[in-house]
Amino acid sequence: DYEGGEGGDIAPDRGATRPTATFEQGLDPTPPMGKRGSVLSMISGATGSTARNVNAIGRMEITILQAHNLPQVIWSSGKDGEFLGLPQAYCVFTLNKLTAQTVINKRDWSPQWNHTVSIDVRDVWQVCSLRVMHSKTLSRTHKDDFTIGNVSLPAGQVINWRGVSLGADGFWRAFHRPHNAGAGTIYTVCKGKDKNGLESDKFETAEEAASAYDDVASKRDREMASLNFSGDGDFIGQHVKEERFPLAGEDGVRVDGVQAGVAAMIRLRLKFFMKGVSYLEVTLERAASLPKMDAGLGSCDAYCIAIIGGYNFKSRLVRNSLDPRFKQTFRINVRDESEVMNLKVQIWDWDRFDDDDHMGDAVLRFSPRDCENGALDGAYPVMKPQPDGQVGDAPLKNSKGTASQLHLKFAYFPWSKQE
């Protein structure tokens, strides 16, 4: 067991110093803002939408999605003096001494941006820093703009699996810290099944340790757990983090929003592209024509488990729907684009008091290079499982005799094209 640290941090057995970030006071005026949803409008010292560095270990793609529950800010006018009102928010992102800025959103407690920027990363200890700012005008920023709150995290927090650390002995370990734990809270060493099916707290792969972390976190934190292989984010998996981050003031104290006692948050998606590594993304779009599983409501509460390349991903739960829309992407790395991969997606019906019901499976064999240009995108039949849990040969159908389907999309990012 270890003391200190924060949930999701690299465990302290590595003996490394946690990096910190400082924030400048105010900003210089900037050029006019770009369109919402486009690549971020300004990158200082970079060319175009991507800043490249020959010494980089990879590239970080940051999407600033939406803020939630921002606090009231002080407005001033010559007639009425100072008064509290809605923030007029924009974001400033800094990494590798490069700065990017979003558009300014008109007064809103929960502004949306959906803006993306791509910047090279030199090492895992570089800090990604983001400030949510308030501007008194929509047309431009000002030197005296007010900082609503900050978020900072090292690049390694995106690259590493949550709670996983590599020990000096060459084995991977997982350490769990309870959700919202205070300073000085003890880390728990996570135990799970190794590749031989034996219980252990030392693992040969980071993925095995990440799975052990998920088992412990889901039991201890329950619905508040932040996991490696499941969650409510649109993207889950290798070298990607999508979640809400609480805003903090310059003094490090949590910023509470307009809803009293509730933290102001910002939702970010951070995707890392490691140099020399290729990635495959499998998007679970939706299921169609599922059978009724809940007798009382005549519906089902569906979720999926996607099994591919040694990874087991669990989708979000969609309640009371026979045509659930999942809209969730699972990301893994690929070592050989010609390797034949097996994908099995299990569809389950969630039950509150009984065991969940295994409804059916969709299976596919393919190689990553087959995914280019949407060649594999489409609907796949769902087959009933056999009593032993294996994939059967009888199609799953609803009460009208319509065959159930699972709609999937695929995207392959070979490193040769990323360069």
How would you explain this protein's 3D organization?
By secondary structure, the protein is mainly beta. The protein is built from three helices and 28 strands. It has a five-stranded antiparallel beta sheet. A hairpin with a 7-residue loop joins strand 23 and strand 24. The protein is globular.
Q: What structural keywords apply?
A:
419 residues, mainly beta, five-stranded antiparallel β-sheet, five-stranded mixed β-sheet, 6% helix, 28 strands, disordered N terminus
Find the structural class using helix and strand composition.
mainly beta
> Roughly what is the average pLDDT, rounded to an integer?
84
Helix content: under 10%
How many helices does DSSP assign?
Answer: 3
The main β sheet shows up as:
5 strands, antiparallel
Query: For the CA atoms, what is the radius of gyration?
Result: 23 Å
| CA-based shape | globular
Low-confidence runs: 1-50
What is the percentage of strand-forming residues?
A: 35-45%
* Total strands: 28
Main-sheet strand order equals 1-7-6-9-10
Distance between the termini: 42 Å
